[in-house]
């Protein structure tokens, strides 16, 4: 059993599930976030050492657009951490995956290099689009109102269940056999946004409608709602892999890490309590 595990981003979609799954297995967990059990703020380095003290394994959920993982991992190694699992991003090796107007890619690449060069046991997870974006993330408010308006066209993505992501992370933090592994994580099939919304409608027992927009229409709507043009364009760029189908390919990371197939989108929808 790992002596103590630090989970950063412990209130996020993957982090909170990692905390739960670790505790269900009987591991001691330090759940770190800006507010919560262990105060931790990526932008306040004075909080780092207390979070890492006495820890042997760390789940690192980084802040997009920053290069803070490198100094954090260096400090972790100095304080006796032995194992690190990094949450990275799918498509990092594909220059055509998406337009990076938010400057996220450089940070992801630096973070991956940092853990590889750390001298620690390391595992990198590269999840695709979370299925939970429909229930507690990017699309949740629109789904709850019954109409999801996106510039996603009829493209598809192999949405991955955050429960599967957490299971892979939990295994990598606590079991042998995952050192120097890069796990790209996806669901078992590509699903269009229209198909996803239809599946949600079936399991939520209410109608949710998908309205496809052009990128310019989407940006204009967000700007009319008070979003800055720059941020509106960044949101449109985030959706680009859905529209272009560059996140539709399937990955074997869940199968390799857990020796079982990933959950389907329908299984995710059936297990979710819809707002």
Explain what the structure shows.
By secondary structure, the chain is α/β, with parallel strands linked by helices. The protein has a single domain, classed as Rossmann fold (3-Layer(aba) Sandwich), CATH 3.40.50. Helix content is 39%, strand content 16%. The chain contains 11 helices and 11 strands. The strands form 3 sheets. A 7-stranded parallel sheet has the order 3-2-1-4-5-6-9, sandwiched between helices. It has a two-stranded parallel sheet with strand order 7-11. A two-stranded antiparallel ribbon has the order 8-10. β1 (5-7), α1 and β2 (29-33) form a beta-alpha-beta unit. α8 (215-224) packs antiparallel against α9. The chain is globular. The protein starts with a strand and ends with a helix. 43% of the residues are buried. InterPro entries: Ergot_Alk_Oxidoreductase, NAD(P)-bd_dom, NAD(P)-bd_dom_sf. It comes from Lentzea guizhouensis. This is NAD(P)-dependent oxidoreductase. It holds the Pfam family NAD_binding_10. Residues 9-175 form the NAD(P)-binding domain.
